[in-house]
Design a protein that fits this description.
This protein has helices at 16-47, 50-71, 74-84, 89-118, 121-149, 153-177, 181-204, 227-259, 261-277, 279-294, 299-331, 339-364, 368-393, 395-419, 425-432. With 433 residues, the protein is an all-alpha fold. Helix 1 crosses helix 10, helix 11 runs antiparallel to helix 12 and helix 13 (368-393) packs antiparallel against helix 14. The longest helix is centred in the middle third of the chain and has 33 residues, at 227-259. The model is unreliable at 1-14, 209-225 and 426-433 (pLDDT under 50).
Length: 433
């Protein structure tokens, strides 16, 4: 992990075999990472007292919100900027990392003040530590996007494996030794802090060849992180990400509101399976993001969107046929009523995979405001459909609402991209510098 890293011709993803390897490695790393957190959650639920596990769940959720809000789209903006002019990678990273350190510190301070004012000390301490864990993880994620911009997702994948493996070992050791939520939070913080330090060292040590300078010299004279750039380019990306997360997850709360807790259990069980399927398109987009940013037309997007959508269709078809025995096998016979909802959600998976590519292309072509607007529309459509369908069909109605929302988002992205043009190189320099 401490090897000397160089940026060479592989920063332009022309080699299909290398891209295939990077995608497979990224998918494996993400699967292993998700699996390690899942194992910790299961063991924590068994070893911790119910109240302590509730504190762990609350702290984890709050920490995730801290990471998303404090980033506010900076990481995707950084990946796009680095992909466009890699010669400025070090300068861009320094500027935006400074901003992220301040936003993370501010978010943690707000959490600490809120906890100090409204929570008992035994509960506040582990929640505060978990908020720090996720804030540091957000900084690691920023560095991951920096590697993506340089077409070095292999570095990200290696760091993910080390971090998640360390988290799994430390978490399980603490839970076996002394089941305490504060100790568990501290155990999760240790590998995160180490990974952040190692990743910073790696990022600063990546040399960039002069061959990448391609018209970016003027950009070095411009300030990196200004309020104007944040307001114009970064904030819309962050708003779109938050709105996207809301429309993708809010149906769980709406099912609780209109159908009850048992329906939430059924729906959440099958929804998590479909959510896990997103690892593959996410891995593909992590690897090919630079090619989308640099694209002068929609042909690179087409070459990417067709295969991932085709794979999604094939996977959905297989799982559709297997759903009748798969759901009871995974969750037990009581979850058999969730099979129809699972099949409806599978219908949305190809569109969801396609939308991964479409939204990345939108942002890659400076369409972040359009992206945010489309996510806002998708959220409104999702809530409206759920309000109509959940009272009629319970949690299966939520599945149909998800499908309807993905259809609307696909149509919106298609219209937006069809009417857009790739930004000229000179315009990219002004925007990203």
């Amino acid at each position: 992990m401490a090897e000397t890293l160089t940026v060479d011709e592989t920063s332009f993803p022309n080699a299909k075999s290398r891209d295939a390897w990077l995608i497979a490695y990224k998918a494996f790393a993400d699967l292993a990472g998700k699996g390690s957190l899942f194992v910790i959650t299961i063991v924590a639920a068994r070893r911790l007292a119910p109240e302590s596990f509730g504190i762990f769940s609350l702290g984890s959720t709050l920490g995730w919100i801290v990471a998303v809000v404090s980033d506010c789209g900076i990481q995707l903006h950084l990946a796009r900027a680095v992909a466009r002019h890699p010669a400025d990678a070090a300068r861009l990273l320094r500027g935006w990392l400074r901003v992220r350190l301040w936003t993370a510190a501010g978010a943690i301070a707000i959490v600490a003040i809120g906890l100090g004012a409204g929570w008992r000390a035994p509960s506040a301490t582990p929640i505060a530590v978990l908020a720090v864990v996720y804030a540091c993880s957000g900084l690691i994620e920023l560095l991951h996007y920096f590697y993506r911009g340089l077409s070095r997702s292999d570095v990200e994948s290696s760091l993910t494996l080390w971090q998640r493996g360390g988290t799994l070992v430390c978490g399980l050791l603490v839970l076996a030794w002394k089941p305490d939520v504060t100790l568990l939070a501290i155990a999760m913080l240790i590998p995160v802090a180490i990974t952040l330090a190692v990743s910073l060292s790696i990022a600063r040590g990546i040399p960039v060849q002069e061959a990448f300078s391609s018209a970016s010299g003027d950009a070095r004279l411009m300030p990196c992180a200004t309020l104007g750039i944040f307001r114009r380019d970064v904030w819309p990306i962050g708003a779109g990400i938050v709105l996207s997360a809301l429309y993708f997850r809010i149906d769980v709360f709406l099912v609780q509101l209109w159908a009850g807790t048992e329906s939430v259990a059924f729906y959440n069980a099958v929804f998590r399976l479909v959510e896990a399927l997103r690892l593959f398109p996410a891995a593909v987009l992590a690897v090919v993001l630079p090619s989308l940013v640099r694209a002068g037309d929609l042909r690179p997007l087409t070459k990417i969107a067709i295969p991932i959508t085709g794979v999604a269709i094939a996977a959905a078809a297989v799982l559709w046929m297997a759903a009748g025995w798969l759901i009871p096998f995974l969750y037990g016979a009581p979850y058999a009523p969730a099979v129809p909802a699972f099949r409806v959600l599978l219908l949305s998976f190809p569109l969801l995979s396609l939308n991964f590519a479409l939204t990345h292309q939108l942002v890659g072509w400076d369409g972040q405001r359009t992206y945010a607007a489309l996510c806002a529309i998708a959220l409104a459509v999702n809530v409206a459909l759920n309000a109509r369908l959940i009272p009629l069909w319970s949690f299966e109605g939520a599945a149909w609402a998800t499908l309807g929302t993905e259809i609307v988002l696909t149509a919106g992205c298609g219209v937006a991209l069809w009417s857009m043009r790739a930004p000229a190189p000179s315009a990219r320099l002004v925007t990203e510098a």
